[in-house]
Amino acid sequence: xxxxxxxxxxxxxxxxxxxxxxxxxxxxxxxxxxxxxxxxxxxxxxxxxxxxxxxxxxxxxxxxxxxxxxxxxxxxxxxxxxxxxxxxxxxxxxxxxxxxxxxxxxxxxxxxxxxxx
Length: 117
Fold this sequence. Notes:
It holds the Pfam family adh_short. One of its GO terms (molecular function) is oxidoreductase activity. Keywords: Oxidoreductase. With 117 residues, the protein is an alpha/beta fold. It is 38% helix and 18% strand. The protein is built from four helices and four strands. It is globular and about 50 Å long. The chain starts with 8 loop residues before the first strand and ends in an 8-residue tail after the last helix.
């Protein structure tokens, strides 16, 4: 029998340092110990309290290069052996002209968060 056989679902919530992401994690954890959460944020110190509530925490900046994103995804999958639900709640601000902002935004949106899953 697997160490995590009683796990109902494994949630990966990206962008949990404040707002909706933080509240998603708290709400999921209230469902009970069979619901597992992996919470990510650019600044892992900002989600230390979520770790105390039972979430597994990882540092993730969605603006990172593809190699880093893949490494974090592998770490996330390695925590419980799977990810059942992804909530991509990360946000960021782009500065510059509209032409540059649109190009940068499109390049980030087209990089899949789950590389080779």
